[in-house]
Amino acid sequence: MKKILSPFVRWVLVALAGAVLVGCGDDGGGAGADYAGVWQGRTSNGGTIVFTVEGSLVVALRLSDPGGEIWFPQPTDVRGDSFSAEYATDTAATDDVSLQGTFVSDSAATGRYAMRQGGTVLNGTFEARRQ
Question: In the Cβ-directed half-sphere of 6, how many Cα atoms lie within 13 Å?
């Protein structure tokens, strides 16, 4: 059986493939990124969002929307380039709050939120920048 590629050509192809994989590395976000600081922004419903990141935790978060307010009493983990929090109230059968955020760079974040209180549901998105 005839060899299609010489050993040298195979070695060059492997080296090129390795170089391509190295080039697909981290773009500045993710687990090694530092998102610490105060972040502020606007919601899709005309409200505001402010949250504080310390280390790998969102330690404070408050979202004021014309339809209601969301704040989380406990820190939530930043995992990679995102964070999420869910909070059920004493009447969890009818009331709950959730928020998911993603750091799209070291100075910008986007996300979405939902708040359900009885039969009323408030949904929206947000964009925030590190101050």
Answer: 3
The domain locations on the chain are 37-130
Cα three-residue angle 20-22-26, rounded to 5 degrees: 120
Give the residue-averaged pLDDT of 92-109. Answer: 89
Helices (H), 3-62: 7-23
The pLDDT value given to residue 69: 86
- DSSP β-bridge partners for residue 12: none
Given this structure, which CATH class describes domain 37-130? Answer: mainly beta
- Mean pLDDT on 78-105: 86
Q: Is 12 helix (H, G, I), strand (E, B) or coil?
A: helix
With cut-offs at 50, 70 and 90, classify the pLDDT of residue 71: confident
